[in-house]
Design brief:
By secondary structure, the protein is mainly α. The chain has two domains: about 10-55; about 60-190, AhpD-like. The protein has helices at about 15-30, 35-40, 40-55, 65-75, 80-90, 95-100, 115-125, 135-145, 145-170, 175-180. α4 packs antiparallel against α5 (about 80-90), α4 runs parallel beside α9 (about 145-170) and α8 (about 135-145) crosses α9. The chain is globular, with a radius of gyration of 17 Å. The two termini are about 30 Å apart. The mean pLDDT is about 90.
Amino acid sequence: MASNTRIPKAELTGLYGAMVKRMSRKMFGDVPEPVEVAWHNRKVLNFSFSLGRKAQKWDQCDENLKSFAHMAVASLVGCSFCLDLGYFMAHNEGLDETKAREVPRWRESDVFTPLERDVMEYAEAMSLTPPTVTDELSARLLDQLGAPALVELTAFIALANLYTRSNTALGIESQEFSAACDLKPLAVPSTR
């Protein structure tokens, strides 16, 4: 697949580059394009890695809910890389693949619970400009999740926006990680 990144990918060099390549290939089978593009500015790359590692340690909100939220943001923003990677990660982490593949058309799909629908609605509402989060939606989520999980979900959605918007602006698109696992294709978003 030809790269369409707006900033050319950099060659990962040196010992650190070799380590990043080795770890990336072990985790994903290839080096993700966001890593190759961000390699131009190691401080930005390291910040992104650090954020990701710290967010992985958060444990107050269900992983499926966070995965659906991230993919809902990616679908809304149009980040094919994040959607593909999200589906790949759901597969590798034992999350619900059937639901993960339906996130792009969550409003029409019948596989989601009311809580999961609220989470994806919240993710989209946070991602719009200006945000459209309502008191009613926040109250429903607070009641169902509790304060610690809702704070975590909110921060996770904010990070999803950082990643999806950065990738989209840089022209980074799907690397077909999910195809490498023989996963069924993602559902096509419905027109709204």
